[in-house]
Amino acid sequence: MGTHVPRGVGACVVTFTVGGLSVLNAIAGAYSENLPVICIVGGPNSNDYGTSKILHHTIGLPDFSQELRCFQTVTCTQAVLNNLDDAHELIDTAISTALKESKPAYISIGCNLPGIPHPTFARDPVPFFLAPKVSNQLGLEAAVEAAAEFLNKSVKPVIVGGPKVRVAKAQKAFVELADACGYPIAVMPSGKGLVPEHHPSFIGTYWGAVSSGFCGEIVESADAYVFVGPIFNDYSSVGYSLLIKKEKLIVVEPNRVTIGNGPSFGWVFMTDFLSALAKKLKMNCTALENHHRIYVPPGVALKREKNELLRVNILFKHIQEMLSGNTAVIAETGDSWFNCQKLHLPENCGFEFQMQYGSIGWSVGATLGYAQAAKDKRIIACIGDGSFQVTAQDISTMIRCAQKNIIFLINNGGYTIEVEIHDGPYNVIKNWDYTGLVNAIHNGEGKCWTAKVKTEEDLIEAITTATTTHKDSLCFIEVFLHKDDTSKELLEWGSRVSAANSRPPNPQ
Questions:
Q1: Do 327 and 352 contact (CB within 8 A), yes or no?
Q2: Could you give one GO CC term from the UniProt record (predicted)?
Q3: pTM (predicted TM-score)
């Protein structure tokens, strides 16, 4: 994940219907992020298929298809195993399809079938092999030629990386292209963590009106831009307000390249295209030099009074100092999107957030899963109080699995992101004693340490403790912030998204 080497696939095992429908939201989130997750369900007894029996955990009808129908829209393939003769083939096909398409798969297995020997499962598993995808050679050459001609005659071209760089496994090829051409490289917000921010050509996050300083100006004033693996939705386009013109745009999809208003080349794969294009581009540092000319480093937060209540920009200044190649950042949906977006990621520092699906509470489970897979990294999670209340119980499994994550619980008394889009009394939530809750879950078993932080002094002390004395514990730091203390980006983004959401119906 991010710059971390992915293991290839995730898996979860749940109970028929009642478990399946509970995990549906998570599987939909994995689908939106192109993550291969194998969802395995313990299905009904094979003898019950085709009968009119009513089973527990279902909605009380003699129909076993409800769960399957729900999963059909959020998985790329579904397999229902109710006899052993074709089980081997169905399982192989489901898993290979998930890997090929990089999407979740659903496998339901009759609860009386596991453990029964069958001749098709007679030998040890054969190591799995997926045939490599090879670009159409003539299409690749034509696409590279057309793109090179388009870019070599442009004056100040730029490159922007998007979230589909991950599914195309194109991080190395992206760097190869950046090294070869000298264009500035920016990242779309949802692609953060996939583009190396320590690269000398890196200029920041391109997010239209809420881009990082001096990045939006360079991208939008370019006379040619290469978007690599983008997803343009209402959130990434800030309520459809990007100043990007199609005739100047090259879009590189995982398996297709489209140039301006003109030709489109199919069955051309991103890695092949970027590597081949790197060899054909003239070095052009104009836009990068322009960025250096106009760039002014971000301002320093105003001097604070002693014991002044903590501000969000001070909090993230200190989180920035914690980052290294041995850490990973998980950013919850909400204002943490914007605050974490501003963090500068050192080489090999992981970064994850869920921008397309945006399910609040997502990050608590994501932190648990990431930490299990990336044992070499310490996870730093930034989670708002509103989001945490949805999935708080996952803290229990983190302690049981002896994880050493650092969680910053940002207590600002409500759903701050929603306040900025559309306010109302429903955005104020019941305040919890969050550290008290975590201490109760800890209950003296395992390693867990909590702290409440109200000032910068408290924060420095808490971070020091979490990274020294308690470096092997789960550290839960509750940070109190004013409810109106948000990033300036959220204020602008919220008003633009709100305007896009509330457009009146077009006259018929």
A1: no
A2: cytosol
A3: 0.91
Question: What dihedral angle (degrees, nearest 10) is formed by the CA atoms of 365, 370, 372, 375?
Answer: -150
The CB-side HSE value for 146 (13 A sphere, CA atoms) comes to 21
> Please, what sign has the CA dihedral across residues 41, 44, 46, 49?
negative
DSSP state of 309: B
Distance CA 135, CA 271 (A): 10
- Enumerate the β-bridge partners of residue 351: 329
Per-residue pLDDT tens digits of the chain, which is 508 residues long: 344 444 679 999 999 999 999 999 999 999 999 999 999 999 999 999 888 888 888 888 888 899 999 999 999 999 999 999 999 999 999 999 999 999 999 999 999 999 899 999 888 888 878 888 899 999 999 999 999 999 999 999 999 999 999 999 999 999 999 999 999 999 999 999 999 999 999 999 999 888 998 999 999 999 999 999 999 988 778 777 888 999 999 999 999 999 999 899 999 999 999 999 999 999 999 999 999 999 998 877 777 777 788 999 999 999 999 999 999 999 998 778 888 999 999 999 999 999 889 899 999 999 999 999 999 999 999 999 989 999 999 999 999 999 999 999 999 876 666 666 677 777 778 899 999 999 999 999 999 999 999 999 999 999 999 999 999 999 999 999 987 788 778 888 888 888 888 889 998 7
Q: Both tokens of residue 304?
A: 């604070």
Q: Is 25 annotated as a binding residue?
A: no
Look-up of token digits 């897979």: 373
Q: Rounded to an integer, what distance in angstroms lies between the CA atom of residue 190 and that of residue 207?
A: 10
The alpha helices in 267-325, defined as continuous H runs, are 270-278, 286-294, 312-322
Q: What's the half-sphere exposure (Cβ side, CA atoms, 13 Å) at 193?
A: 27
**Nearest to 95, CA basis, from 109, 78, 112:** 78
Collapsed DSSP state (helix, strand, coil) of residue 490: helix
Euclidean distance between CA atoms 178 and 286, whole angstroms = 14
- Does the annotation place 313 within a ligand binding site? no
Q: Are 245 and 260 in contact (CB under 8 A)?
A: no
- CA dihedral (151, 155, 159, 160) in degrees, to 10, reads -120
Q: Could you tell me where the DSSP H helices lie in 262-374?
A: 270-278, 286-294, 312-322, 335-341, 362-373
Does the annotation place 414 within a ligand binding site? yes
> In 3D, which of 105, 125, 92, 121 has the Cα closest to residue 40?
105
Which residue pairs, CB below 8 angstroms and at least 24 apart, start in 425-433?
Answer: 429/385, 429/386, 429/389, 430/389, 431/385, 432/385, 432/389
